[in-house]
Amino acid sequence: MVSSQRQVAAVYGVAARTVKRWVAQAGWPGGHGPYDLEKIGPWVEARHAAQIEATRVPSETTELERLCASHRQKLQLELQERQGQLVSRPELEATLRESCSLFGVALKAVRKGLCADCGGPVTHQLERARESAVARLREKFGPIAP
């Protein structure tokens, strides 16, 4: 037992003002003096443990903030898509398929023109390049119109 808040402060290594705040808090086990250190000790330890736990919260808060930001970004992208500011993946894939199909047609036309002018090896290289490009696109996106 100690008789003053200053003595309690000295035992726990805090300022007398801190003990005064403790006394004013709900749950303070020490009453208004004399102060029973056997009752106060567990309360101070629990308070200290809670403060240590509170220092871990920012990492959890950071994770929560990251998840919220990710969700917010997803919602913004969906809104932009609805407003016509973004192209959806299926729309992009369809456009890419159409473009590649047109590219294939153009290459065939070039090949026919080259066949008449210079023939052979250049034509085969163009055809192999086209087939390779179409094969990669089919692998990624599925069937592509000829």
Notable features of this structure?
5 helices; mainly alpha; 2 domains; 146 residues
Description:
The chain has helices at 5-12, 16-24, 37-82, 89-117, 120-141. With 146 residues, it is mainly alpha-helical. The protein has 2 domains: 5-79, no CATH class; 89-141. The protein starts with a helix and ends in a 5-residue tail after the last helix.
| Class by SSE composition | mainly alpha
Give the overall form: rod-shaped
Strand content: under 5%
How many structural domains can be distinguished in the coordinates? 2
Total helical elements: 5
Q: What gap, in angstroms, lies between the N and C termini?
A: 93 Å
Order of helices and strands: HHHHH
Radius of gyration: 38 Å
Fraction in helix: over 70%
Mean pLDDT: 75
Largest sheet, strands/sense/barrel: none
Total number of strands: 0
Give the uncertain stretches in residue-range form.
Answer: none
